[in-house]
Amino acid sequence: MSTRVLVTGATGFIAGHVIVELLDHGYAVRGTVRDLADSGKRAHLVEYAARVGGDLDFVAADLNRDAGWAAAVAGCTQVLHVASPFPATPPDDESELIRTAVDGTLRVLTACADSPAVRRVVLTSSTAAIAHGHHDDAVRTEADWTVIERSPAYQRSKTLAERAAWEFADALPVARELDLVVVNPGMVLGPLLSPETSTSHEPVRRLLAGAVPGLPRVGWSVVDVRDLAVAHRLAMENPRAAGNRYICAGEHVWMRDMAELLAAEFGPRGFRIATRGLPDRLVRLVAVFDRGLRLTVPALGRVERVSADRARRELGWTMRPVRETVRDTADSLLRQRIVAPPRRASAPGGRAVSAAEA
Which one of 146, 207, 303, 311 has the fewest CB atoms closer than 10 angstroms to its CB? Predict the structure, then answer.
C-alpha cells in the first residue's frame, strides 16, 4: 500500500503495537517522538520494520508544543493519535495533566484539519472517559460519559480531551471531510516490545516481583494490547466507523483474580505471589506513604462494567482470553528483565533447585 499512517507517541506501549499491526498489514508508517536523537527507545521498532520489510520513519513532535505537527501529518491520509500522559502516581499539578491531554489532542487535530491529505483521525481515549463518577453499577456503553466532578485527575483528563476532540470535529466546515473515530480501551495489558513499561503494567509487575504483601480490592476491565492494536486498524479502515466511539475492553477482573492466575502459572516456577486480600482501611493507610498505591484508593471496591458489543458488531473485533493476556504480560516482564526470576525454588521433596531448573 502507498498509504502512510501517522502514529503519535511511537515509543509508547500501545503505539508500538499499533505500529507493528500496521506494518504487518502493508501500511507505510510514520511515528512521532519527542527527541529524534534518542534512537534507543525506538530501536525495537526500526529492527522490526527491517525484519518485515516495512516502511517506517520518525519525526519530532511534542504534545506540549505547536512545532513539528504540520510536518508530522504532511502526506499522511490517516492519523492515529495514541499519545497521552498516563501518570504512575497522582500528579502534583492536576491542571498540568489535563492541559497536556486536551491541548495535545487539539494540536494534533488542528494539524490534521490544516492538511488536505488527512481524511480520518482515530483517537485513543479510554473507558476512563465513560465509566467513572456514576452512582450505579450499570453496564456502560458508548452513550455514557464519565462524570468529571466525581472523578480523579486522570479520568478527568481523558474525558475532557475526548470531549474537546468531538467539539473540534463538530465545528469543522462541512467542506472539510475529516472523520473522527474514538477507541476507548480499558486496562491495557499484554507483552512489552521493549524494556519501557507502561503504568498499566504495575499491578502485574508488583505481583510477580512479590512487592505487595496483599491485594487491594480493586479491579479493571482488561484488554490485550495486541487486540487493541487490531481495533485501531479496523477503526481506521472501516467506513462505517466514522463519527463513532468504540469500547474495547472485557469483563471486570479483580486484582485477586490476576494474582490467582499468576500464582497458578508462575508459582510452580518459584514465584511467591500474594493472593490474600487487604482491608480497604489498611490500603488507605499505606497509600499515605506509597504514592504508587494512591491511584488505587478511589477505585476500592469499584466494579467497571462496560460493553464492547459495538466494536464486535460493527468492526468484527474480538478479544483473546484474559488468562492469556495476564500470562503473556508476566512472561514479557521476565523476558525484558524488568522482573528478576527467583534465585531459588523448592523442588518436590524439599530439594533446593535453581530457577532455571524449576
Answer: 303
Q: Chunked in runs of 10, what are the mean pLDDT values of the chain (358 residues)?
A: 85 97 98 94 96 97 95 97 76 83 96 96 97 92 96 92 97 88 97 90 93 89 98 97 97 94 95 92 83 75 93 98 97 95 58 36
Contact indicator for 99, 65 with CB cutoff of 8 Å: no
0.85 exceeded by pTM: yes
Q: What's the pLDDT score for residue 198? A: 84
Cα–Cα–Cα angle for 10, 230, 242, rounded to 5 degrees: 90
Tell me the H-state helices in 28-74: 43-52, 69-73
Q: How far is CA 81 from CA 6, 149, 308, in A?
A: 8, 26, 21
Question: What is d(CA 285, CA 283) in angstroms, rounded to the nearest whole number?
Answer: 5
DSSP letters of 230-243? HHHHHHHH-GGGTT
Going along the chain from its start, the domains and CATH numbers come out as 4-189+221-249+305-320 (3.40.50.720)
- Edge to edge, the sheet with strand 28-33 lists 56-60, 28-33, 4-7, 78-81, 120-124, 179-185, 245-248
Q: Which three cell numbers stand for residue 236?
A: 481506521
Which residue in the block uniquely carries the three cell numbers 491511584? 295
Question: Is residue 158 annotated as part of the catalytic site, yes or no?
Answer: yes
Total residue count of the chain as it appears in this document: 358
Residue 24 in 3-state DSSP?
helix
Query: Which pLDDT does position 347 carry in this prediction?
Result: 43
